[in-house]
Amino acid sequence: MDLYITSLLLGVVGLGAMAFTGLGARGAGHGHAGQAGHGDGGHFHFGSGSHGHAGHVHAAHGHTSHVGHGGTGRLLAIMSPRLLFSLALGFGASGLLLRPAVGEPLLIAGAALGAVLFDRVLVNPLWNFAMRFASKPAETLESALLDEATAVTSFDHNGEGIVSLEVDGQVVQILATLQPNDRLLGTKVRVGQKVRIEEVNAEKNCCTVSII
Prior knowledge:
Layout: H1 3-29, E1 37-40, E2 43-46, H2 70-78, H3 81-98, H4 106-131, E3 148-151, E4 160-167, E5 170-178, H5 180-184, E6 194-201, E7 206-211
Parallel strand pairs: 2-5, 5-7
Antiparallel strand pairs: 1-2, 3-4, 3-6, 4-5, 6-7
Helix pairs in contact: 1-3, 3-4
């Protein structure tokens, strides 16, 4: 088969497959994270079988891998499947358009230049624009850290009660424990009172709160 036609078809199929699978995977990721609870009139209750202080949440800080040489980094960028398919599409399209007017070897050079321009001017901006419509990942309980919550029940003498808050667009209810400093001051939390999420224990679906 002709080199330019083959390149064109490869680019079309490759970019089409990447766009389909990429958007589909992001959309699936929008499904709510597996949170143990039961729906009740639009409210989701996070169960917690134990009472106690919520454990500290340690944010994992990933260390970025440093590439030793700039050339290696550029090579890895060139090996991006999206870029390769885009260049293949641009090379094939440019070659077919220029072939009636330009002969070899200028045709190959023109097709290569057209491939780069095709990616930079057309494909890359359109690709980035399309990815904006992909669904964002679902938020989890940890995302509520430092958010406000509302006391659903009065806190007991142990400084424990149920609070409601919004997570990923849904109202959830979880067990909350008043932080030690507020308990030492004898602070009481009553129904409807606003509190702040200070710590989150996602495994036990509970949190530590402070008085606002």
